[in-house]
């Protein structure tokens, strides 16, 4: 007998398979194991090279970035230490950080690479 995962909604251990779906008899929640794996993969934030980023990583900016409201730009090669990931950002900026000379700001992960 294969070990089925607990229900993601109520954490009940009495789940069962119904075709390609998993069902919880306690709360009647139905889910697809494949969709659950895709959702977990969707929450992963990757840098420009495809490396997975984590809170506290150090990254390097890969191109000059204009800063709104400032006459200067963040230069290519700028090192950013101790990043914090933001998963539900409405504007696409998924990294919060502090950059020397600029202060607190948000960056898009597509413009950085992990060191």
TrEMBL record:
Every Protein YjdM N-terminal domain range: 4-32
Domain of life from the UniProt record: Bacteria
Residue ranges annotated for the Protein YjdM C-terminal domain, each copy included: 45-114
Record-annotated membrane-spanning stretches: none
SUPFAM superfamilies, per database record: Prokaryotic SH3-related domain (SSF82057), Zinc beta-ribbon (SSF57783)
Family that this chain belongs to: Belongs to the YjdM family.
Stored NCBIfam families: phnA
The protein, known as: Protein YjdM
